[in-house]
């Protein structure tokens, strides 16, 4: 049966529109939709790449047991109310990784080993020789002399062992502090457990937002609005009275300077093995000192001018 040309054109247009719709909902679109945008967490986030497991199809989506275990073991990297950047969204076979503030410390390349091995020193040749002489000596005076020298040699060895053991413990404590600081600054993630292969093109940004609605606030451009500005930014210095209240860990340096203007001072330094930039900003009434790691705000203090 012959089809009219208008019908064929209409059918072709319908197929084209459907193809575009499917493409727009492709899981590959999740990363460009979310990455680089700001979100606010509604719960404390564990300081680990293991993150928080979310099961959207369960009555209680959050796996409370693993959440509690990770909070206890690793501490907190992002506190409830903190605003931070979505740094990566990765679709795997059985989950979607929604990484924020760096995705959590402990991924490949992150050194989490805090152990320091201490091995006591072996006996010196002199100590062994004195022990051998003492065991074969029968003269009381000579035995007392050998014993005194042997005791002195042993004390020297034990003193060196004690010193080296203390240094090893100090080194282990320093490494633990370094890893702890890096964990606090490394962000976290949500692991949204779902059969992504089965969902196919139905895995849209809205599905992700719905799955995380109880735990993340998608405000301003984090919910897809155009532009890259921070939703609470008050503009350059002098505009708005809520500049400092809008300051949050996880903001980029560009976002901070959109609020306060360029830094009046900026200094680079190394702290616990990490490169850090300290910037000073001034508003009409206050002075803000902000520390950035890789361009991300990790801590700040506010004082009156």
Descriptive keywords:
six-stranded mixed sheet, elongated, single chain, four-stranded antiparallel sheet, Beta-lactamase Inhibitory Protein, Chain:B, domain 1, 37% helix, 3 domains, alpha+beta
Quick summary:
The chain is an alpha+beta fold and 305 residues long. The chain contains eight helices and twelve strands.
Written description of the protein model:
Keywords: Signal. Residues 100-191 are annotated as: Disordered. InterPro entries: BamE-like. This protein folds into three domains: 28-105 and 186-223, no CATH class; 125-177, no CATH class; 244-304, Beta-lactamase Inhibitory Protein, Chain:B, domain 1. The chain is built from eight helices and twelve strands. It has helices at 5-24, 30-34, 64-74, 125-136, 140-185, 196-199, 205-212, 253-260; strands at 38-41, 45-46, 52-54, 76-78, 83-91, 95-100, 188-193, 216-217, 265-271, 274-282, 286-293, 296-304. The protein has a six-stranded mixed sheet. Residues 14-25 and 221-241 have low confidence and may be disordered.
Looking at the structure, what is the overall shape? elongated
- What is the makeup of the main sheet? 6 strands, mixed
Number of domains: 3
Task: Provide the residue-averaged pLDDT.
Answer: 81
Oligomer kind: single chain
How big a fraction of the residues is strand? 15-25%
Distance between the termini: 85 Å
Q: Order the strands across the largest sheet as they lie in space.
A: 3-7-6-5-1-8
Structural class: alpha+beta
* Low-confidence sequence ranges: 14-25, 221-241
Order of secondary-structure elements: HHEEEHEEEHHEHHEHEEEE
How many individual β-strands?
Answer: 12
Helix content: 25-40%
The helix count comes to 8
Alpha carbon gyration radius: 31 Å
